[in-house]
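Database export, one record per block. Field names are fixed; values are copied verbatim from the stored entry.
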Amino acid sequence: MISLLKKQLKDRTLSAVDLYAKTLSDIEKKSDLNAFVQVIRDADQRAAESHRRLQNGTQRPLEGIPIAVKDNFCTKGVPTTCASKMLQNFVPVYDATVVERLKAAGAIIIGKTNLDEFAMGSGTVDSIFGPTKNVWRSKPNQWHIAGGSSGGSCVAVASGMCLAALGSDTGGSIRNPASYCGVVGYKPSYGLLSRHGLIPLVNSMDVPSLVAKTVEDVVSVLSVLIGPDANDSTCVNTNLDTNSFQTNFLIDKCRIGIPEEYNCEDLSNEVKETWDYIANLIDDSKGTVKKVSMPHTSVSIATYSVLNACEVASNMSRYTGLFYGYRSTNDHKSFESLISASRMEALGEVVRSRILSGNFFLLRSNYEKYFMQSLKVRRLISDDFKNLWKSNYDFLVTPTTLTTAPLLSEFKSLDNRTQCATQDYCTQPANMTGCPAITIPVKLSSNKMPISIQIMASNFDDIRLLQFAHWLEKKLQFSQVHL
């Protein structure tokens, strides 16, 4: 855990230089998981600086701690590809704000992690670097998906290559793979962390997110990332005090809602039993647990899919090959044919499909019917959440995913649209309303794969959400037993 590692570094029983070298060795040994697409091997100078600071007592909050970064965050001087041929040669000249703040806190950025192309997926299988494999297996030589789109970050943490990693979450992209990999995945409230330098997918839903082995580790990293950013107008100054995480949490003062609509048709029996187990555990601990209704849940995934595609079509229009990004080398008689060829050659089928869908929804003849209607339904979904918070509910507890991690072969047998509609069912509502959400592992299934649950809270009530998750984590003891 990060606190233990910080103590060892401070006590000089471990050197920051040796820790960095060991991290590189672990990444090399576990390269078959394909968690990393870029390893930063020249960070030894930063490790040496951390070593000097630890020696002279001027260490920073995350001094010498190795942290991985999803490959859709800009990293100065290090390729940022979004796992796409379109950006395979893109080397940013600046750091994303969250990366900049990690460095300022003394963290050692060890590499960039794999993802679905432009973060469009729920398996980390649609990448020019190939799929990332889950470290958990139900049988020898049977690979399961890592989940997506932040699968590389979650596998890096779950396999012990690092203790924490940055990911992004647009509809469940940190919580989905964290659930499948048996680690903690936290999506902050929209606007809590700066999106500057996060290559956009859906501007109104994208959130820089964190994955770690424990809730306490999440808080350690979160504490150095919070704060307003002049480069991001959506990043607000909430004065959120992470030190209050250490105060006592009283479960008997909490009202927890169990939304009936999340008990959907495709929910597996084992996940349902785990959800019931958590509800009973909270109830036995004197927390108030009640069934609640979120009436617009059934239309949430369709609404999300339309809005996602519309914003994708808008954001992806910048990739023309004229100013930056891949450019077709064939002879072309017009700008239109050059742009068409460049996008056809450099973008995968999933990305092209969403661009086409989004442009269809945004046609003048369809704009009111699809886009505007979806915005109205999004407001209704958001109102479902607001009405619960107004009714003095503190948290919602739901499944994270409907099943355990599917086999890679099974997952690839279905198209991306179908998979996302299934895998994101429980997670994407939090993105549409902007509320914080976290997933924590509960137990292993009958075939020895992790099962997790999700907790949601009202917007900017992140610290109490983390306190509740920490309380539940201590009750479950999953990380101590299994990781």
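Remark 1: The longest helix spans residues 367-390.
Remark 2: The chain has a mean pLDDT of 95.
End of record.
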